[in-house]
Structure formats: C-alpha cells, structure tokens
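Backbone-to-sequence.
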C-alpha cells in the first residue's frame, strides 16, 4: 500500500487537444474537514487507508495542496437532456484531477465534485452540497455491494461554507473513482460540431486506454459500439432487477464503460410501482422506472449516431451497420434481465412460462402495495409462503404461490440450498430514501457521521444478516413516504 504522495499520478486526458477540456485549479472550501473515508475504495488505487488521518490529506484531495503529477481539468461534452440536444455541457462543478494505475494495471480516474466554477458552469457556482455528496457516496457503495457496475467514492469532505440551492446548505466535495469519465455525450459534442478529426482522436484514445482488445478487429469503432451496447444492456438489466431508478438518464450521464454514473435524484423501489418516478423535476415521467430500458436504447442510438463517421465513410452503410448493432439491445437486455429474475426466484433452469410467472408476481405486487425488496427476501426463506403476509389481500397471491411452489419442485433442489442461493441475490438491505435522509440530517444538523458508518457496513454487505439491524431493512415509516429528491447538488 502507498502513501498519498507515492501514488503514480498521471492525466492522459490532458494530453489530448485543448478542445477536449479546460484547465482549472480546484477552489477549496472554507475550513474543509473529512466527513467520511472509504477504505474499500482506497484499495482500488493501492492507497493505504491510514493516509486518511494524515494532516495533509484533506488539503491535498480538495486542491489546497495539489498532488505531484496531477493536472486538473474540466472535461467538455454535450448530450441529450430530457430528449433534447444541448450542444455544450461539460464538467460544470467537477474536475478530473488525474489518474492512478494500481498494481494490477487498472486505471482509475480521480474526479473531484464540488470543486468550483469552470468554463462549463453555465452560471452555476460549481459547488456540491453535503446532502448530495452523502447520497452519491452511499449509493455508489450500495450499488457496488449489489454487484451493479458503478463509480466508487473515496471520500467526502465538508466545510463551513454556505451554498444556496432551494435553501442555504453546507458546501462539500466528493472524490469519486471510475475507469474514465468519458460519456456518450463526449462523442456527441464532436459529432454535432462536425469535428470528425477530434471525434476520431477521442475514439482512438478510448480504444487505446480501455478497449485495447478491440483495436485489431476489422472495424474497431463498430466493435466499440457493440461492446457499449452489451455493457449498457447488462447495466440496465441490473437496475431493473434490484429496483433502482436512476432519475436522470440523459446521454451525458451514460458511461462508455457500462457503469452507473452521476447519482442525482435516484431511488430504490419501496412498494413496487412500475411507473415509479424518483425525480420530481421529471414532469413527463420520461425517466420512470419501467422506461429505463427504452431510454437506454435511445441514448445508445445517440452514441451510434455520433460514431457514424468513424464506422464507415459511406453514411448509408454506416447507418445500416449501427442499426444492426442497436437491434441486438432488446435481446441482450431481455435475456440478462430474465436470468437475474429467475435467480431472484430461485430458478436455475430456464423453462417456458418463467417470465409469465415473474410478470404475474410483479402485477400482484403492484396491485397489493407490496414492498419490492422485502418480497423477494421473504421468498428466499426455506418456506416462501411466508411472503403471503406482505400482501394487502393475502388471498390474492394464493394461486400464484401454488404455481410457484410447483415450479420450485421442478428444480428438485433442497429448500435450504435454494434459500442459501436466493439470499445471495436478494438483498436484505438497500439504500432507501429515508435511510439516506436520516444520515444527511444527522450530518448536516449535528455533525454526527455515525449513521454513514452504519449504512456503509450494511450496504457493503447487503445480502448478509446483521444482528440488531433489522430496522434498516424495514419499509419506510409514514414520515418518509413523501420525501422528494431534488436535482440540485
């Protein structure tokens, strides 16, 4: 393990042409202090967790004392926001400090959110608030614990500085890690600017840095599109299976690595509701839970459009090749989602009627106000009939339960073994909004970060039993049912 100053820092993105970014130094917040540190994320970059207690740690990672070799910059990109193309967005409140390669050869970007104004701030203050920093910090770790590809977060730093959103809040910074922060919108920017030379430079950079195995294919740019389509299909299938709603699936919030990026007004399902909308600013329900697969395909089509000049010099030929790849998305998503849901139901074999069985259960859950995560965890018990008590009208699920019991008998697996396997894919603990809200209130009002500690322990091991922690697996209390999550950060 290494000290902070022993990390092998670089910034390969900074060696691209100047149009790709603008250089900025972070603007430190007043009286910065460490709110929380993620030792598991530190190990990704071979950083000794003991470094969090070093006197210079906060100053170094918030820009007051720059790391040797770092080259902070704000990345330029565009994107489709709520279906409409916005020609230039970019990092308006975040900076790419640089990248670190660990001993395994993996590259991790260090991206500082809340670091001050940049060229792309569009009139904003470039700051984050403690509320949003805690939410992203907890949720990225929750998603990792659930096995869903995601950015990770190394630490949160707080301050005494006021930041105005709907009200006065406390400013904070979040340092997150990702293989890269290249987005679908990064390609869109150069395509719509008709800067095809720079578009090729970006694609070649991405291939060289992250998809080297594709460079020798007959058409590496088409192969890149194919790989992103597949990883995005798997990602969204994971979201749907665990009941996660992203909230703002703009194309600039979609990663070329197929990882969950940019946690804004996200939400996990409590009661199952197919058209659940977690973003109160999404007035037309564009990003409703059940629309996420369609929106993913829309965003992939935006990426495909941007790659057309590289895929083939003949526009019509390029379009046909891209369309053929996009046509694979539905099957990729459907197969992955079906496999995940079979596993959640304890089904190893793939038999006709399995999807109907699953769809009927979801419909019954919606009609009866059943908690999504609790239902699948209850089915994971050796006697799954205990799940019956979760229904407003327990008799409503009796016919389904009989069919399910018969289907389990076809598996010919002992109940204890089935239960063990199901509990490995059906979490007991998820990041419910009220849990995050409690942690935020304690941190913001009292400077008490103990709730973050507790949640991190549960979310890093969400499938395990944690004695004395059953209240964290319970449905939200009445006071929490109308919590609204703002887009503002």
């Amino acid at each position: 393990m290494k000290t902070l100053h022993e990390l092998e820092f670089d910034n390969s993105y900074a060696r691209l042409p100047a149009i790709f970014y603008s250089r900025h130094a972070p603007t430190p917040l007043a009286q910065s202090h460490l709110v929380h540190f993620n030792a598991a994320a530190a190990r990704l970059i071979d950083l000794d967790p003991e470094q969090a207690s070093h006197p210079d740690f906060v100053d170094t990672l918030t820009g007051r004392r720059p790391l040797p070799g770092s080259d902070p910059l704000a990345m330029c990109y565009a994107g489709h926001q709520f279906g409409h193309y916005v020609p230039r967005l970019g990092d308006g409140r975040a900076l790419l400090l640089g990248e670190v390669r660990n001993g395994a050869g993996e590259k991790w970007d260090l991206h500082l959110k809340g670091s001050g104004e940049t060229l792309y701030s569009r009139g904003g203050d470039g700051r984050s608030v403690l509320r949003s920093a805690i939410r992203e910090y907890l949720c990225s770790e929750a998603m990792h614990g659930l096995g869903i590809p995601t950015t990770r977060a190394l630490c949160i730093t707080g301050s005494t500085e006021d930041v105005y959103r709907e009200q006065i809040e406390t400013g904070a910074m979040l340092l997150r890690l990702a293989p890269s922060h290249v987005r679908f919108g990064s390609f869109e920017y150069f395509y719509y600017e008709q800067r095809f030379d720079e578009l090729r430079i970006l694609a070649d950079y991405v291939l060289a840095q992250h998809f080297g195995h594709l460079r020798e294919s007959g058409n590496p740019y088409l192969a890149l599109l194919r790989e992103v389509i597949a990883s995005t299909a798997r990602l969204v299938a994971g979201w749907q299976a665990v009941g996660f709603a992203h909230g703002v699936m703009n194309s600039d919030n979609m990663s070329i690595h197929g990882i969950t990026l940019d946690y804004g007004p996200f939400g996990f399902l409590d009661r199952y509701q197919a058209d659940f909308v977690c973003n109160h600013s999404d007035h037309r329900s564009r990003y409703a839970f059940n629309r996420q697969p369609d929106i993913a395909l829309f965003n992939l089509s935006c990426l495909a459009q941007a790659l057309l000049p590289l895929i083939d010099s003949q526009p019509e030929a390029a379009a046909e090749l891209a369309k053929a790849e996009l046509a694979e998305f539905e099957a990729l998503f459907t197969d992955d989602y079906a496999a995940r849901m079979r596993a959640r139901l304890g089904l190893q074999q793939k038999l006709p009627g399995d999807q109907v069985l699953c769809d009927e259960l979801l419909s019954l859950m919606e009609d009866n106000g059943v908690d999504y995560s609790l239902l699948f965890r209850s089915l994971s018990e050796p006697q799954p009939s205990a799940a019956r008590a979760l229904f407003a009208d327990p008799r409503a699920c009796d016919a389904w339960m009989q069919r399910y019991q018969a289907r389990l008998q076809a598996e010919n697996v002992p109940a204890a073994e089935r239960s063990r396997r199901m509990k490995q894919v059906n979490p007991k603990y998820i990041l419910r909004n009220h849990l995050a809200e409690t942690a935020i209130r304690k941190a913001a009002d009292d400077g008490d970060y103990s709730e973050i500690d507790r949640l991190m322990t549960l979310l890093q091991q969400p499938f395990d039993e944690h004695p004395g922690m059953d209240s964290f697996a319970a449905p939200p209390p009445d006071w929490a049912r109308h919590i609204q999550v703002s887009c503002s950060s």
